[in-house]
Amino acid sequence: MKQGSLKFICLIFLACIVVLSVHGQDRPLIYGTWVLESFNGNGDSIYAWKTESSRFITKTDEITFPQTKYVDAYPSHNFRKGNVEGAPRSFGINGRFDRRGYNWIDVYPVLADDSDAKPVGIPVPGKVKSMDMWVWGSNLRFYIEIYLKDFQGVIHVLKLGNINFRGWRNMSVNIPTNIPQFAWVESEAVVRAHEAGIDLSDKPQVHDEPAYPSLHFIKFRIWTQPVERVDNFHIYFKQLRILTDIFEAIFDGSDLADPQNVKQIWSTSN
């Protein structure tokens, strides 16, 4: 009896493996690293980085904080000068507040050639599993948050972590599964049906067009805490990356699913 039960359980286990393998073949997962920003500051990026601070940031007649600068420093065991053109650099922030508390500094991207320096979101390709960034901390009890925006315009705030450590450290955060990372483009037929008040719920043959990547990186925020000094501090950043499903990022014809590209194509004459 016991041997028969054991054989039956083994058969069920093997069947589950076969089912999972078949379903896995329908849609392969191909994860790879994608660099959103190198923070090299040598013209290799279309983005520049600006800051905005809370009310108690220090301002004097000579200087207004925070100060930003690209510096000749980087995590030496992960970057080598000979591996890239020129010496790799990092983005540094020198901050100072007039009083302790929950002060913050936002660091956000703008287009490098935009004279108005309007904030922009950096498109995040593929279906992202995690984000990471190299951070140089000076053993201060601060922490960093990452802000992401989905296709509905909803902002999601993720805590990257505390920076109460010395030297360089790679900090990472997993992307929660409840954050929508793709939007579906409504086909012309679906749009017209909705405008006419036609219910399509019982018509599975009417489909929307393929999905396009819709998650955008907005900024990261540095928070100070009341228990820590804020009279003068330095923080450095290097290489903002994502671990993403490359299969989703580069599906054949993805450019024809991007709403902005589609609008441009069909708004011009032949």
Determine the fraction of residues in helical runs and give it as a percent range: 10-25%
Radius of gyration: 24 Å
CATH superfamily heading: Galactose-binding domain-like
Largest sheet, strands/sense/barrel: 6 strands, antiparallel
What is the fold named in CATH at topology level?
A: Jelly Rolls
Shape verdict = globular
For the terminal residues, how far apart are their CA atoms? 76 Å
What's the tally of helices? 4
| CATH architecture classification name | Sandwich
Order of helices and strands, N to C? HEEEEEEEEEEEHEEEHH
Mean of residue pLDDT? 79
Number of strands: 14
What would CATH call the class? Answer: Mainly Beta
Q: Oligomeric form of this entry? A: single chain
Number of domains: 1
Task: List low-confidence stretches.
Answer: 6-25, 203-210
Structural class: alpha+beta
Strand content: 35-45%
